Structures are given as structure tokens and as C-alpha cells.
Amino acid sequence: MSETSASAVADPNTHxxxxxxxxxxxxxxxxxxxxxxxxALSAAGVGGLAVLYPLISQMAPSEDVLAESTxxxxxxxxEPGQAIKSVxxxxxxFIRRLTDAEIAEANxxxxxxxxxxxxxxxxxxxxxxxxxxxxxxxxxxxxxxxGVTEGENRGEFGGYFCPCHGxxxxxxxxxxxxxxPTNLVVPEYTFNTDxxxxxx
Length: 200
Ligand code: FES
Known about the structure:
This protein is of the alpha+beta class and 200 residues long. The protein has helices at residues 3-10, 12-16, 32-59, 63-68, 100-108, and strands spanning 71-74, 83-88, 91-97, 131-135, 158-162, 167-170, 175-177, 189-191, 196-199. The chain has two domains: 3-59, no CATH class; 67-199, Rieske Iron-sulfur Protein (3-layer Sandwich). The strands form three sheets. The protein has a three-stranded antiparallel beta sheet with strand order 1-9-8, with no helix packed on it. Strands 2-3-4 form a three-stranded antiparallel beta sheet, with no helix packed on it. FE2/S2 (inorganic) cluster binds at residues 138, 140-143, 162, 164-167, 178-180. Component of the ubiquinol-cytochrome c reductase complex (complex III or cytochrome b-c1 complex), which is a respiratory chain that generates an electrochemical potential coupled to ATP synthesis. It catalyses: a quinol + 2 Fe(III)-[cytochrome c](out) = a quinone + 2 Fe(II)-[cytochrome c](out) + 2 H(+)(out). InterPro entries: Rieske_2Fe-2S, Rieske_2Fe-2S_sf, Rieske_Fe-S_prot, Rieske_Fe-S_prot_C, TAT_signal, Ubiq_cytC_Rdtase_Fe-S_su_TAT, Ubiquinol_cyt_c_Rdtase_Fe-S-su.
């Protein structure tokens, strides 16, 4: 028995239809069967959304997580030549105030001498050339470089030194020697106030 003939016998809606397959009196000639199909699909759509909503709302970051996603740091106490270590998204964050001599040194390096060419201006906020904010994560294999705490080895270029495999970063956090492929990462940040930066 063909599918068409089976439908004609088994489907009571077909018996209620007029000769041209429409429901008698239905505006626009919509077949009752079509109407039931559309209604069923609409119900499934609403049901699907009802199921998805709690899932999506559970997946949305909580306020705690959103708060954790930014870090505010008061940089007012960092003297020229000093650096501090903070934490941003569970990773070390280095914030360093460069001396005038360090700024001059960073600006004297030709980009052609750099493995990952960036100027100090590229790596700092406009008007804040002396404040260098970078992740404290070596771009080779993720060790935490030395050079924040006074007396630590700052490497051959006076910035940061990663002892794991010997990567040397300069005063602008740019890779100058060793296996690290790129400069220390500068995260997104802005000045919240004159003295507080918001990272993230
Ligand atoms: S992880 Fe820093 S040099 Fe290898």
C-alpha cells in the first residue's frame, strides 16, 4: 500500500477536508493538518526555549566571576625604577614605573633589533609612558620571570629574566634574548582614577 493511500485512510483529518484538501471555512485555505503541525512546532519551540533558558542562565557568568575578571591596582606608590606584582585572572601581573633613563634606553632600540617589534609607546597608555603593565608570564613556556623584587636578576637588558630557559626581556618587557618568541603580554587596562588602573 502506498504512503498516500495509507494516509487517506488512516488520517481522520483528511476525511474532514474538502475536495481541494482545505478545511471547510478555514481562512486562506489552511488545511487543519497544517494547522496542527504548526501548532505542534510552535509548542516545541516554546518548550525548547523553556528548557534552554535555565541552561543559558546557568552558563552566564555570575557576579563573582565578573568581579574577578577585572583587577584594580593602586599604582601611586610605585617609585621610578620599582615594580610590583599583582594578580590578574589568577596569573601574575607586573606593573613597573620606568625611570627617565629606562624610557630613553627603551626608545633608543631600533625596531629592527627586536624579535617582536614594538615601541614603548605601543606598550603603554598615551601620556603614561613610564608605567609598564604586563603579564608576569614568560611567553616561552609560562614560567614567572624574575625582576620585580629589588635585587632579583633583571637579565642582560635590565627588564625581566626568566631563569627556566634563559629568556631576557628589556625594560619595556620586550624579548631580547633566549627562547621566548614574543614580548611579555600587555593586558587591556585603563585608568580608573589618576592613581588606580583597572585591568581587564
Ligand atoms: S619558560 Fe621562560 S625561558 Fe622557558
